[in-house]
Specification:
The chain is built from 16 helices and 16 strands. By secondary structure, the chain is an alpha/beta fold. The protein has two domains: about 20-50 and about 315-455, Aspartate Aminotransferase, domain 1; about 60-310, Type I PLP-dependent aspartate aminotransferase-like (Major domain) (Aspartate Aminotransferase, domain 2), CATH 3.40.640.10. The strands form six sheets. The protein has a five-stranded mixed beta sheet, with helices on both faces. Strands 9-14-11 form a three-stranded antiparallel beta sheet. Strand 3 (about 115-120), helix 5 and strand 4 (about 135-140) form a beta-alpha-beta unit. The longest helix has 20 residues, at about 315-330. It is globular. The structure holds ligand P71. Ligand P71 binds near residues 52, 124, 127 and 255.
């Protein structure tokens, strides 16, 4: 029997949630064009759409909000954040941004020219879209183990470094302005990247003079997995593991909405002085003066404090065990998930959940809809809606290897009973899985279509 970890906190503030009937939800969904992004949060019972910006902040963070210094230039909170970012990442320079994708936009605007390629283990949707928006090619070079949803391996987020080297030689280093690693790998199940792989990826890129950046939103969860799964690091403090991860890179983009436990915020950190100057120019045009980015002083303080809390080992042990509990319970009930579970989410394995729906009929999206109608549970599709694309040469639709529905777990928000309720919803739905029908688009924009697309049942 799966074991739920005891919370390393107690609850001081609560927010009521409300259950609706299945009939009400079916109507709400129809009006939302079968897209859960268009459903009001108040009409959701357990909201597992994302772990991004949905954390419960601590009393220390809220106290920090009251210590916000709203000066335009040089507010004290910037310096508190600077100390945290520099201590944890070791990068010489950093700028705050309002969230992760703003850091990506600024970085790629300063580095990527049309026609150039940006290799990664796997881009998430916003990094992919920000590379495309600069006329670049986002390239995924994940090691094969990461594409097998049933294989148990400790570091399924690893880059295939041999393929990376071959890719650099074919493409020419002059056409690769930077390479990246997403830690943990969100598009591939929240799987961690090993320390050896981070080091090897950095070495392969640096051999050809290519800068290496981490997409670091979930760097603390990745560091904790290294501690759990690599015997060489079993006794190493997580802060030290994190510092070593960053030491192989030239910079990072960070959505603080994940492992820094805040509702808004991010940053871009880097060593290169000349690039930093270009970044500041771009930042001032798009986000704001370099001591606040797109944030208020109070937000900067919450990030500074949240960065430290996100590295607390008692918290991380609980966090990883909490996610593991949901995964273990689903496996006990026979519900197919991607294994082993990631740090921030459990991913339903849609190809095994709904084998009767072909990818052309968007089975992941159909499953998010069915989960909502069944129990008011909101997950997100990470499959054909998010990642299918047209082949430039043939014009044919290329479907992603992994078809997933992610149940992302907000930090410090849901109790064991909430997770048990989610398990019950998934189990009941799995028993009636043949009744679930596919979907087709009635509207789809070109970039990041999952946020605003609309659908109808086939
Ligand atoms: C997540 C998100 C946010 C999101 C995306 C799609 C649907 C719903 C919510 C954001 C990430 C991320 C990685 C690895 C950069 C960003 C952008 N993830 N890299 O997982 O996971 O950060 O949202 O702060 O702009 O739900 P940003």
């Amino acid at each position: 029997m799966a074991k739920f970890p005891v919370e390393p906190f107690k609850i001081k503030v609560v927010e009521p949630i409300r259950q609706t009937s299945a009939e009400e939800r079916a109507e709400i969904l129809r009006r939302a064009g079968y897209n859960l992004f268009a459903v009001r949060a108040e009409d959701v019972y357990v909201d597992l759409l994302t772990d991004s910006g949905t954390s419960a902040m601590s009393d220390r963070q809220w106290a920090g909000v009251m210590r916000g210094d709203e000066a335009y230039a040089g507010c004290r909170n910037f310096f508190n954040l600077e100390e945290a970012v520099q201590t944890i990442t070791g990068f010489r320079h950093f700028v705050p941004t309002h969230q992760g994708r703003a850091a990506e936009n600024v970085l790629f605007t300063c580095t990527v020219a049309p026609g150039q390629s940006v290799p990664s283990n796997m881009h998430f949707d916003t990094t992919q879209a920000n590379v495309l928006a600069r006329g670049g090619h986002p390239v995924n070079l994940i090691a094969l183990a990461g594409l097998d949803p049933t294989l148990h391996a400790p570091f399924k987020g690893d880059m295939d470094v041999a393929r990376l080297e071959a890719f650099i030689q074919e493409t020419g280093p002059e056409n690769i302005p930077l390479g990246m690693l997403t830690v943990t790998n969100n598009s591939g199940g929240g799987q961690p990247v090993s320390m050896a792989n981070i080091r090897a990826t950095g070495e392969a890129l640096h051999k050809y003079g290519i800068p290496f950046f981490l997409d670091a939103c979930r760097y603390a969860e990745n560091a904790y997995f290294i501690k759990l799964r690599d015997p060489d690091y079993a006794e190493t403090p997580v802060l030290e593991i994190a510092r070593e991860m960053f030491s192989y890179a030239d910079g990072c983009t960070m959505s603080a909405k994940k492992d820094a436990l805040v509702n808004i915020g991010g940053f871009l950190a880097l060593h290169d002085e000349a690039l930093y100057q270009r970044v500041c120019q771009e930042l001032i045009i798009r986000e704001g003066f370099p001591t606040y980015g797109g944030l208020a002083g109070r937000d900067l303080e919450a990030v500074a404090r949240g960065l430290w809390e996100g590295l607390d080992e008692g918290y991380l042990a609980y966090r990883i065990a909490h996610t593991r509990y949901l995964a273990d319970r689903l496996v006990e009930e026979g519900v197919p998930i991607l294994e082993p579970p990631g740090g921030h989410a459990v991913y339903l394995n849609v190809k095994r959940f709904l084998p009767h729906i072909p990818q052309s009929e968007l089975p992941g999206q159909a499953l998010t809809c069915a989960l909502y109608v069944e129990g008011g549970v909101r997950g997100v599709e990470i499959g054909s809606v998010m990642f299918a694309h047209e082949d430039a040469a043939t014009g044919e639709t290329v479907y992603p290897d992994l078809e997933l529905v992610r149940l992302a777990i907000p930090r410090r928000v849901y109790t064991q009973a909430h997770l048990d309720y989610v398990v019950e919803t998934c189990r009941t739905l799995y028993e009636r899985r043949e009744e679930i029908l596919g979907l087709r688009y009635t509207y789809a924009p070109r970039l990041l279509r999952h946020f605003t697309a609309r659908f109808e049942p086939v």
